[in-house]
Amino acid sequence: MAAVTLEADRLTKRFGTRAAVDGLSFAAGAGNIIGLLGPNGAGKTTAIRMLTTMLAPTSGSFTVGGVPHTDPDGIRHRIGVLPESAGYPPRQSAAEYLRFFGRLYGLAPVDAGRLAGPLLAEVGLASRAGSPIGTFSRGMRQRLGIARALINDPAVVFLDEPTLGLDPAGQRQVLSILRDIAARRDATVVLSTHLLSEVEQLCDRVLILDHGRIVTDGSVAEVLSRTAADPHRARLTVPDGFGERARQAAASVEGVQAEFSGRRSALVLSLNGVAEDRLLDLALAAVLDAGVPVLSFQREQTRLADAFLALTSALPDAVVPGGEP
Amino acid sequence: MRRRCAAALPLLAIALLGAALLVVGLPGSAPFATAAPDPTGLTAASTQPRLSTSVGQHLDYRVSIVNDGHSATGQLLAHLNIASVTGGTYVDPEDWSAERSRFLPALAPGAAVALTWDVQAVSPGTFALYVVVLPAGMAATPDQRLVVSTPTRVEVAARRTLNAGGALPVAVAVPVLLGLVALAGRGRNRARLRR
Amino acid sequence: MMSTAATADRTARPALSRHGWLVIAGRDCRELWAGGRGPVLLVGYSVLLSCVSYLAATNQVLNFLEQREAVNLTLQVALAVGVLVALVCAADAISGERERGTLEALLLTPVSRRGVVAGKLVAALSLWLACWAVSLPYLWVLGRGVAVVAESVLLSLGIGTATALGLVEVGLLISALSDSNRASLALSVFVLIALSAPTQLPTGLANTAVGGALIRLNPVGSALHYVSAVLVRGRGASRDLSYLAAPVLTAVLAGAVLLVAAPRIVTLGAGGRR
Predict the structure, then answer these.
(1) The CATH number of B30-139 is which of 3.30.70.250, 3.10.129.10, 2.40.30.30, 2.60.40.10?
(2) ipTM (interface predicted TM)
(3) For a FRET experiment, which of B82, C36, C91, C161 has its CA 20 to 30 Å from that of B73?
(4) Model-level pTM greater than 0.80?
(5) SS3 of B179, please?
């Protein structure tokens, strides 16, 4: 791992008797992108607020760039944050907004002014530098928020649900910017999100939180391998009226179980205690031999969504675009 | 010697009578100088024989009430009054002072109390300000006499009132100017947002 | 890495962030004045003063009013309403940012909480100073010729600023401790109305020990009383100085509470709850 920039040690936050975050420990290096995943109320935002000095921990400690949590001013110089549901002054222009924050970080007015242009270019807003923020779309505002989070060239950037409410193009744009931040600036990026696909695409490490505790921690591949205990399955779709004939044909293969999935034209084929994927191919061949036209046949693999559901006890409220959670 | 004294007595009587007539007969001067002493020894007097002011001005009217008698008084009520001494001027004392009656505690022999009224001169002219002291519970001592202070002569000069004509241009111009500035700012903001 | 412009170094701690309060004051003043809210409030304020001053100058029922009284009447309205406007601005300062979602970004910068409060205090006071400036032509037109213009201008500036400072600090405390911006505004207006109520006491009650104490303890009532005593009754500036204790003490005490409590109460949740 690269030089450690962020280290939490048994970080705990209690509100009364309830532990919002309970013994959070992890370390991250420069250039890492860490995904914080968990259902609502898992403690993601509380964890980020502690790590960004907005909340004092009940116990435990953390350091950012070697600065201990007991020096919040020092930490605030080294972090950039895009909070969840950040607001923006509608009448200020994007450049004025960044100049203002640059000055709050101690830059002279001229330097703060010079910094605004390149930062806006970095997030694709150079052409709108003089426009009032009130005229920006949500995606543009999020990108402006990211530019603001970079104004002090932070060692660690925290983003709380940065793509929430964005259209797919906006999401892709934001994720691409985050990838650049980690690669070009060598900054640690901590990303809290509901979107599992984002973590799969972007993060080289994932922390799944549930009830304030880390339930798993590792690379996406590691997390998947720990939870890949389900039998392999396939989904089969046939025209209406062919469902029953397809089910009988598939079930005729020993070791294969075939069941309707909602409609009588959609089937789920699963292996009945036999870990041999080729049986699914044999079942498909049997269906075709029975003269059933096959509309689609798709093998299922364990995804992060499955791991997420397996690891968290809560009902799933995560959003997995293009698939079932 | 006895005959000389007897001859002098009528002269003394005439002199005293003449002096009394002189005191009573002189208009203006005597009533503004002293007040008749109360048999109980209670006196009220102002240390300000004359006051001058102009319409609208406030002045402090001070009166001292002293118990020179040998016995304590009951609770007292001091009541301020005002009268026009030139006539022809309507006087409503309530306009001149908002709180004319003051209740006083019982005064021990030799005790004194100083009272001050805030009086606003409402009309031009010459006025007499005076205070009447009476027992707070009249029914308890129905035979007790009122005590009246020495009056104070107040000369109130006329004064020009406000010039409404001067206020109008400012009253109109200031909001209009500020409104134009606010509109210009709003227009600039809208233009910025449209860009 | 950024190389095109100066950036705040990852390891060094820039020294200028201690002037953050000035940067915040500048931003808030620009938003207040260039954003249009300040000018609109001033227009309303000037319309009110125009009505009061014109009525004072023309009303036949008040015709016996001496010029000093007319100046005093206008000055009292100017002071009370000017302070109210500044108080309302202060009441919106922290709870408003919290509600608009802009406070968190501000608190994430290295500027201290005290710096944030100081910047907002300056912006709210700028509204009072603008109100005072607007009142000047009215005081001049009513007071010229009786040598009270300079006196009334100085009185309103000195006493009005002390009173406004105290109430703006109270407004900021309310704003930091309120759950919502609406609650903060409502509570602040209630405070000012409650403070103005003793000025309406009947004369008899005002002259009692309780009435006198109520006026002396009340920063707004005692400031207005002092102005009247000096301007109308012609009392020397030093005679009723004790009446200035309430506005001055309010400014000092509320300022001290803000200074001590700001790090704990200027937070994402009301009063440091989050």
Answers:
(1) 2.60.40.10
(2) 0.84
(3) B82
(4) no
(5) helix
